[in-house]
Write a structure and sequence with these properties.
The protein is mainly α and 60 residues long. It contains 2 helices and no strands. The chain has helices at residues 11-29, 33-59. α1 runs antiparallel to α2. The longest helix is centred in the C-terminal third of the chain and has 27 residues, at 33-59.
């Protein structure tokens, strides 16, 4: 009945994911490819967590 009061469990993760992508872009523009790769990997791990949460929500 009051489902609109429930918070989105992925909202914070998506915000972190977007921040990591922007940080990676800045590192790439500055020519720091090693940091770009590391940050991109961290962002991919966050994205996998988001997908896992969304898939578990769909099956429930």
């Amino acid at each position: 009945m009051f489902s609109f009061f429930k918070s989105d469990p992925t909202k914070k993760l998506r915000k972190t994911y977007n921040a990591k992508l922007e940080e990676a872009m800045k590192a790439q523009r500055n020519g720091d490819i090693r940091s770009y790769s590391t940050i991109t990997e961290e962002a991919e791990q966050i994205w996998q967590e988001i997908e896992k949460i969304e898939n578990s929500a769909k099956t429930s």
